[in-house]
Write a structure and sequence with these properties.
Blueprint: E1 4-19, E2 23-35, E3 38-39, E4 42-54, E5 58-64, E6 79-84, E7 87-92, E8 101-102, E9 112-119, E10 126-134, E11 144-145, E12 149-153, H1 174-178, E13 184-185, E14 189-193, E15 196-198, E16 202-205, E17 208-209, E18 215-218, E19 233-236, E20 250-255, E21 258-263, E22 266-268, E23 273-278, E24 281-285, E25 288-290, E26 294-306, E27 309-311, E28 315-319, E29 322-327, E30 330-332, E31 337-342, E32 345-355, E33 359-364, E34 368-378, E35 382-387, E36 391-392, E37 399-401, E38 405-410, E39 413-414
Parallel strand pairs: 11-13, 12-14, 13-17, 14-18, 15-19, 16-20, 18-21, 19-22, 20-23, 21-24, 22-25, 23-26, 24-26, 25-27, 26-28, 26-29, 27-30, 28-31, 29-32, 30-32, 31-33, 32-34, 33-35, 34-36, 34-37, 35-38, 36-39
Antiparallel strand pairs: 1-2, 2-3, 2-7, 2-8, 4-5, 4-6, 4-9, 6-7, 9-10
Length: 415
């Protein structure tokens, strides 16, 4: 009989981030190995996996020295480690010993552990027990990504314990991927979301990408929505598609962020906004918002909606304290307004269409409309209303068809 035991194991938290070719984490790992009760001396072989757990029922491998570990299983290959008097000291994440560890692997709040297998060259590989807890580096200040990174989400096959760094290790919820995103991004960062239904509110708070970089969240990569065409990635505020009871306020809620791009999503059945941006520089591309109180909303400055469509909401595109841009987009069949601007501004660029709304465009209370491009107002009760100390340019140059009244201007002016 033989026995390996692990004594006085320490995971020394000398974490470093290499911001060169990749954002990688290194940490020092020390411990003591006994073979049949005696301290081992010699060169052994080691295999290592970093795992996440929920109780004892679910184990996922976030990283292993050769990338082969699945669900906490033993990796296929090993690396040498020197043991003197039973004591070993090695660096985990050193590329001389295997794969680098992407720093973003640790940018999470759940419990992580390190699992080790050791071979003294005689008795074969044995798993050392117990697994040891890792202090989460998120709490040690890993707050920046400097190398282009993609996280994957799949509502059907994913698991929120997963790393999210490959399609096969995808997260299950969009929020779990967002929670891994650091507050400062100095390279392009992408969350790629697979087709499906996501019953969650996604909150993105305080994420800033550099001027030449971007944080992107991509759903359906090709569909351009219209009143009859819908993206195949749905974020919904209801848990019941029979009653459509609304249990969440927003589909995506963005606050105090810079340089974000959100594309290819359907937002529906939310109490307040399908998509909400507050004090953020953010663009939506190819998104659709339907059956919400408001479809797309921006407050503060910097929200822009491109190739996006709002239908069957209370109002389609709105701001009540800020400026928004609407580009190559449209709104139809909303119960109130296609576009409603109060105490703010809106700019139309490209080709826009607002149809079958009680009011196509409302510019109201100290607000301003700037028009550049072609905008059509079709089959609305009112095409455009400019009210209460507001102003708009080139209103007469819009394209009107089938409206009850094309233009209403009250206590305001156009130019």
């Amino acid at each position: 009989m033989f026995r390996f035991s692990l004594f006085a194991l320490m995971v020394c938290m000398f974490w470093t981030v290499n911001a060169g070719a990749a954002d990688n984490s290194l940490f020092n790992y020390q411990g003591r190995v006994l073979v049949q009760g005696f301290p081992y001396t010699g060169t052994g072989q080691m295999k290592v996996a970093i795992i996440a757990t929920t109780g004892t029922s679910t184990v996922v491998s976030l990283w292993s020295n050769d990338g082969s570990s699945v669900a906490g299983s033993e990796p296929s290959s090993s690396f040498p480690v020197t043991v003197t008097g039973g004591v070993f000291d090695t660096m985990i994440g050193d590329t001389n010993n295997g794969l680098a560890i992407p720093a973003i692997t640790f940018n999470r709040d759940d419990e992580l552990k390190i699992r080790v297998w050791f071979n003294d060259g005689t008795h074969g590989f044995q798993q050392l027990t117990p697994d040891r807890r890792l202090t989460n580096p998120r709490r040690l200040g890993i707050t920046e990504v400097t190398t282009s990174t993609t996280l994957y989400v799949n509502g059907s096959t994913g698991n929120d314990l997963n790393s999210g760094l490959t399609p096969t290790s995808a997260k299950k919820s969009i929020q779990a991927a967002v929670n891994m995103v650091p507050s400062k991004i100095s390279a392009n960062m992408t969350i790629q979301v697979a087709a499906g239904i996501y019953r969650e509110q996604v909150n993105i708070y305080g994420v800033a990408a550099g001027l030449s970089d971007q944080f992107s969240m991509i759903g359906d990569p090709t569909t351009v929505p219209s009143d009859t065409v819908t993206p195949n990635v749905r974020i919904t505020g209801t848990n019941n598609d029979s009653t459509h009871l609304k249990v969440r306020d927003h589909g995506i809620n963005v606050m105090s962020c810079h340089n974000l791009a959100i594309s290819g999503f359907l937002f529906d059945y939310c109490n307040l906004y399908g998509f909400n941006s507050h004090s953020s520089v953010v663009r939506t591309y190819r998104c659709k918002s339907t059956n919400n109180s408001r479809g797309f909303h921006g407050s503060g400055h910097g929200a822009e909606f491109r190739n996006s469509w709002a239908s069957a909401n209370g109002s389609g595109f709105t701001t009540d304290a800020g400026d928004i841009g609407i580009v190559d987009s449209g709104a139809s069949d909303n119960t109130g307004f296609g576009v409603a601007i109060t105490n703010g501004g809106v700019s139309f660029y490209g080709t826009n269409s607002f149809k079958r709304n009680p009011t196509g465009v409302l510019i109201h209370m100290n607000s301003m409309l700037y028009i550049n491009g072609t905008t059509s107002l079709t089959s609305n009760t009112y095409g455009i209303q400019v009210l209460k100390n507001s102003m708009a340019n080139n209103v007469a140059g819009l394209t009107y068809s089938g409206n009850g009244t094309n233009i209403v201007v009250t206590d305001s002016f156009t130019y």
